[in-house]
Amino acid sequence: MLDAKRAIELKTHQIAAPANKADENYRSGNIHTVTVDDLIMRSSNDRADF
Length: 50
Description:
- The chain has 50 residues and is an all-alpha fold.
- The chain is 80% helix and 0% strand.
- It has helices at 2-28, 36-48.
- The radius of gyration is 17 Å and the shape is elongated.
């Protein structure tokens, strides 16, 4: 039972860590506003590098 509780706590931390980082970035103004088209273009450019 304790192992299951620990596994849940670890998974919760794995999920929460990126969310906390995103919140920290947002609050500090470290964000970029882009459109869906911008994201698609960046994604296309990333694939071309391989």
